[in-house]
Specification:
- The complex is a heterodimer of chains A (275) and B (237).
- Chain A is of the alpha/beta class and 275 residues long.
- Chain A has helices spanning 2-18, 34-38, 41-53, 64-73, 84-92, 125-135, 147-159, 163-166, 178-188, 196-201, 237-247, 250-258, and strands at residues 27-33, 56-62, 78-81, 96-112, 139-141, 171-173, 191-195, 208-212, 219-227, 260-261, 264-265, 268-269.
- Chain A folds into two domains: 2-104 and 222-269, 3-Layer(aba) Sandwich (D-Maltodextrin-Binding Protein, domain 2), CATH 3.40.190; 106-218, Periplasmic binding protein-like II (D-Maltodextrin-Binding Protein, domain 2, 3-Layer(aba) Sandwich), CATH 3.40.190.10.
- Chain B has one domain: MetI-like (MetI-like fold).
- Chain B contains ten helices and no strands.
- The chains are: A alpha/beta (275), B mainly alpha (237).
């Protein structure tokens, strides 16, 4: 094992020599979620930040669960994720500092236009999901411990449905990102819970449309956290903090609000000092 | 069927417009995979030849292992390299995770067994053919390595190309250790995976067509070089 590690170290050094890291380049690594990347928000937001500060932002799009793990390992400087419960735990355990709430968007329930479970008339999210379960209509779940998956499971719990028992029958866990899950739902004519941003930017809709939206419980809060420099000394504390400050500044918040697809605003800035 | 014609149209327009992002992604793909194959060849060719020529205890087991490692799952290699290069891992201080260097390491690990295993077969066959002759000239197995590798060079090109095919086609390892960061570690295969995620199937398939064309070009070039060299050699003889 020792020889292998030594061999790999040699290999790594060779590779490092072949591809010198651009020492002059100022960049931070941000572990974020597939929803922010695939909705196109970062493509709109980051060039403005880089133009202002000269700091390049390298985004790794993962599910929130995986992004938190990446932060725990010290492989990112900043996390930009959406699972407040898990985020607070992350900070309490000492892995992150300075968490701020940045913005929210909302989840929507999508499903086949024919709406076999009759979700369209539902009064609440819980009722909508209950109808899907009662009809045993197909439902495509992320099943990947992402922020969206965590939110979906909370809604099922509120609806009093035991999805674990239905897994593999009408309840399908794809174990993949939002886009692939929507691809699956479109192919199976199944229902799914998605963030609005990914949905608006998603092209392979086939026969799917939004069947339920607007319930306050579908609110989806995003936060940023600096990976704790006391745990991982190499974390680019100052540049990471600059990024977080900018996101929560008047300018950053306005830039978030300005991002629209087909005239529709996707993310709603809601930073409150002290949050 | 529309998907396929859309994909061809997309591929064609991307190529004809010399799409800037596409060029960057293609160049990075080539840089990563060709470097990985180079590293794998430097390690795998002598290793394969040594396995073919030396007799030592456990040799058959070693051969079985190298052959089996040809089937290393990319996603597992990616995970292991990730854990080694992670800031919390043994090689963390190098800070190589989420860089092209990390992708090269992962692909080199994937490709080396392929080159070594195929080389072993080629050299062993050559040795069976020329052993008496070489021994009569006073060559020991150790001294025969260079001769046999040179003699088998045309067949060994195929071994290296098989390695390149593996490297350029895999997505599991580079996705994990590279992170698919735009303009930094985004290569052909991870871009295709991303476009599938966005539901842009025509663009994804169009990129796939370009990737296959690229693989054809590399293999075509290798074949051309091989044929030219062979003819040149024939003319000399």
């Amino acid at each position: 094992m020792r020889t292998i590690i030594r061999l790999l170290a040699g290999l790594a050094t060779t590779a490092a020599l072949l591809f010198p890291a651009h020492a002059a380049d100022k960049y931070i690594t941000v572990a974020s979620t597939t929803s922010t990347e695939q909705s196109g928000l970062f493509g709109h937001l980051l060039p403005k930040f880089t133009a202002k500060t000269g700091i390049e932002v390298r985004v790794i799009a993962q599910g929130t669960g995986q992004a938190l793990k990446t932060g725990r390992q010290g492989d990112a400087d900043v996390l930009f994720v959406h699972d407040p419960v898990a985020e607070k735990k992350f900070v309490e355990e000492g892995y992150g500092v300075g968490r701020r709430e940045v913005m929210y968007n909302d989840f929507v329930v999508v499903g086949p236009k024919s709406d076999p479970a009759g979700v369209k008339g539902a009064k609440s999210t819980a009722e909508a999901l209950k109808r899907i379960a009662d009809a045993q209509a197909g439902f495509a779940s992320r099943g990947d411990k992402s922020g969206t998956h965590a939110a979906e499971l909370r809604h099922w719990k509120a609806a009093g449905v035991d999805v674990a028992a239905a897994s593999g029958s009408w309840y399908r866990e794809t174990g993949s990102g939002m886009g692939p899950t929507l691809n699956t739902a479109a192919a199976m004519e199944a229902y799914s819970l998605t963030d609005r941003g990914t949905w608006l930017n998603f092209k392979n809709r086939k026969n799917l449309e939004i069947v339920f939206e607007g319930d306050p419980s579908l609110f989806n809060q995003y936060g940023v956290i600096l990976v704790n420099p006391d745990k991982h000394a190499h974390v680019k504390k100052d540049m990471g903090q600059t990024f977080m400050n900018w996101l929560t500044s008047a300018e950053g918040q306005q830039t978030i609000a300005d991002y629209k697809i087909n005239g529709e605003q996707l993310f709603f800035p809601n930073y409150k000092p002290g949050s | 069927m529309n998907d396929f014609s859309d994909a061809f149209a997309t591929a064609l327009s991307l190529i004809l417009n010399l799409d800037q992002d596409l060029a960057e992604i293609v160049l990075l793909s080539l840089r990563v995979s060709l470097t990985a194959v180079l590293v794998a060849a430097v390690i795998g060719l002598p290793l394969g030849a040594a396995l073919a020529l030396f007799r030592f205890p456990g040799r058959s087991a070693a051969i079985v292992i190298v052959n089996a490692l040809m089937g290393l799952p990319p996603v597992v290699v990616g995970l292991v390299v990730y854990l080694l290069l992670s800031r919390s891992g043994p090689l963390g201080p190098l800070g190589l995770l989420f860089s092209p260097a990390a992708m090269i390491i992962a692909q080199a690990v994937l490709v080396t067994p392929i080159v070594a295993a195929l080389t072993r077969q080629v050299v062993e066959d050559l040795w069976a053919e020329y052993e008496e002759q070489l021994r009569s000239l006073g060559a020991t197995p150790a001294r025969a390595i260079g001769t046999l590798l040179w003699d088998g060079r045309f067949s060994l090109v195929t071994a290296v190309l098989a390695g390149f095919g593996r490297a350029s086609a895999e997505v599991g390892a580079v996705m994990i250790v590279g992170g698919n960061i735009a303009h930094v570690t985004r290569v052909m295969t991870t871009t295709i995976a991303l476009e599938v995620s966005k539901g842009d199937l025509a663009l994804a398939l169009g990129l796939g067509i370009i990737l296959i064309a690229l693989s054809l070009a590399v293999n075509g070039a290798a074949s051309l070089i091989r044929e030219t060299a062979r003819r040149y050699q024939g003319a000399l003889a």
